[in-house]
Design goal:
- The chain is mainly beta.
- Helix content is 0%, strand content 53%.
- The protein has strands at residues 7-12, 21-28, 31-38, 43-49, 53-59, 67-73, 79-84, 91-97, 100-106, 114-119, 124-129, 132-139, 144-151, 158-162, 175-183, 186-193, 202-208, 216-217, 221-222, 233-235, 239-245, 253-257, 265-266, 276-284, 287-293, 299-305.
- The radius of gyration is 21 Å and the shape is globular.
- The relative contact order is 0.07.
Length: 312
C-alpha cells in the first residue's frame, strides 16, 4: 500500500476561531520553506516539490492574493538567507544550488524577480546598504573571512575587505557567521572563531558601512558556548543589543553597540539588578524585551528602552 500523499496548506489567523482560515492548498508532495521575506506590500515565501522544483509565491493575507510568482530552479534547492532592502520594497534571498550560491531579489512580480549574481562557493548574505548587497565567505585554507558585495542592479561583484583573524595561524581557527542585522545604515554581524573542541575561541561583533576602512571589530566578546549564541538585534540610534562580555567566556550580560569602541559596552542598569545569559531580544513599541537569569538562577522577563545606552 502506498504511503499517504501529504499536502501543504497555507493558513492565517488573528488568534480567534472565526479569524483562522485556509488561504490556499499548495499541493501534494510539496514542502513549504520556513524562510520568507516580508516586504512593504506582501509576504514572499518559497515552495519546493520534486515535480515542480523551487518556486517563489507571494501573499497579502487573502486567498485571492496568494499567487505563484516565479519558478526559481528546476530542482529542490535550499533557501539560505533572506532579507529586504532598506526601503522595505524588495525582498533579497540566496539559494544554494550545489556548490553555487545565487543572490536574488524580488518585488513580488515575475519580471521583478531576478538573479543578481552567482558565486561558485558557499556564501552568507548579511543584507543591503545603499545600492549593494553584502555577503561573507570563510576560506578554509587561510582561515579568514572575506566581505563581498554585488550591485542590486545586477553584477558588480567585488571584494570589499578580508577580516582580521588573529588566530589564523593556529589549528582549527575557522571563522563562521553566527548572527547579523542592519541598523542605522550599518551592518552588524557576529563572527565566531572555532577551536579543535566544541567551544569557540572568541565571538566578535563586527560593523561595516560597506567600505573597507569602516569595517572593524568591536570590543568584548559574545558567548563562546557551543550550546548558546546571541542574536544581534537593532535598537534606536543605529545601534544593536546583544549578549556580550569583557572577555571570551560563556557568562554574558546585555550589551549594546553603536558602531564605535566608545559606544560598545554593557547596558547601563540599576546596580542591584543582576542579569546573565540574555536571550530572545524582541521589540514592542519603545521597549526591547528579553529573557535573562537573575540572582535566583531562574529566567525572568526583562525590558530596556529601545534607545538603551551603555557605560563604557
Amino acid at each position: 500500500m502506498d504511503p499517504p500523499r501529504l499536502q501543504v496548506e497555507l493558513w492565517r489567523t488573528d488568534g480567534s476561531a472565526e479569524g483562522t482560515t485556509q488561504l490556499v492548498n499548495l499541493g501534494v508532495l510539496s514542502t513549504l520553506s520556513p524562510s520568507y521575506v516580508r516586504t512593504s506590500s506582501a509576504h514572499l515565501f518559497f515552495l519546493s516539490s520534486p515535480e515542480h522544483g523551487t518556486a517563489l509565491w507571494r501573499t497579502n493575507g487573502t486567498s485571492g492574493g496568494t499567487v505563484f510568482v516565479k519558478r526559481l530552479d528546476a530542482n529542490v534547492v535550499p533557501v539560505v538567507d533572506v532579507g529586504i532592502t532598506e526601503d522595505g520594497s524588495t525582498g533579497l534571498f540566496t539559494l544554494r544550488d550545489g556548490v553555487n550560491t545565487e543572490v536574488w531579489k524580488s518585488d513580488g512580480t515575475a519580471s521583478g524577480t531576478v538573479r543578481l549574481e552567482s558565486f561558485g562557493r558557499e556564501m552568507r548574505m548579511l543584507g543591503s546598504l545603499g545600492a549593494h548587497v553584502y555577503l561573507t565567505n570563510a576560506d578554509p585554507v587561510t582561515q579568514r573571512m572575506g566581505l563581498y558585495r554585488v550591485a542590486q542592479a545586477g553584477g558588480g561583484k567585488a571584494t570589499v575587505t578580508v577580516l582580521e583573524n588573529p588566530y589564523a595561524d593556529q589549528e582549527a581557527a575557522f571563522p563562521s557567521l553566527q548572527s547579523f542585522t542592519r541598523s542605522g545604515g550599518k551592518l552588524y554581524f557576529a563572527v565566531a572563531i572555532s577551536t579543535p573542541g566544541p567551544a569557540y575561541r572568541v565571538v566578535k561583533l563586527w560593523v561595516t558601512d560597506g567600505t573597507a576602512t569602516q569595517t572593524r571589530s568591536m570590543p568584548g566578546s559574545l558567548s563562546v558556548s557551543d550550546e548558546f549564541s546571541s542574536s544581534v538585534h537593532p535598537i534606536d540610534g543605529g545601534g544593536v543589543i546583544f549578549a556580550g562580555a569583557d572577555s571570551a567566556g560563556s557568562y554574558t550580560n546585555p550589551w549594546v553597540s553603536y558602531g564605535t569602541n566608545a559606544t560598545t559596552a554593557e547596558v547601563t542598569a540599576t546596580p542591584s539588578l543582576v542579569t546573565s545569559s540574555p536571550e530572545r531580544f524582541a521589540r514592542v513599541g519603545g521597549s526591547i524585551y528579553f529573557t535573562a537569569m537573575d540572582d535566583t538562577g531562574w529566567y525572568q522577563l526583562w525590558a530596556a528602552p529601545a534607545n538603551v545606552s551603555c557605560t563604557p
